[in-house]
């Protein structure tokens, strides 16, 4: 069994308020949760307008499957023009 953890930070340049930021982050999080077999949550910068830090966790029978799922999620998030992913960290348990 493999547990894959992907932590990522992103910048939301066009957010001028927490309300605008949350509109973007909630939309992304809802889509990720529907599309991917991961647990996904915002873990930092909740009160910062233009910055978000998320963690995604998946459990799989082998590392390759877990890595493929998390890489697909990262590619999906990169497709949002409102977000600029600035940092990613991978961890395997």
UniProtKB/TrEMBL annotation:
Domain of life of the native organism: Bacteria
InterPro entries referenced in this protein's UniProt entry, alphabetically: DUF503, TT1725-like_sf
PANTHER family, per database record: DUF503 DOMAIN-CONTAINING PROTEIN, HYPOTHETICAL CYTOSOLIC PROTEIN
Name of the featured protein: DUF503 domain-containing protein
Lineage of origin: Bacteria, Bacillati, Bacillota, Bacilli, Bacillales
């Amino acid at each position: 069994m493999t547990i894959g953890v992907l932590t990522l930070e992103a910048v939301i340049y066009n957010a001028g308020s927490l309300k605008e930021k949350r509109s973007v982050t909630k939309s992304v999080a809802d889509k990720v949760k529907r599309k991917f077999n991961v647990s996904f949550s915002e873990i930092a910068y909740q009160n910062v307008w233009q910055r978000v830090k998320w963690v995604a966790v998946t459990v799989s029978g082998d590392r390759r499957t877990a890595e493929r799922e998390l890489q697909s999620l990262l590619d999906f998030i990169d497709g949002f023009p409102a977000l600029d992913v600035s940092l990613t960290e991978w961890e395997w348990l």
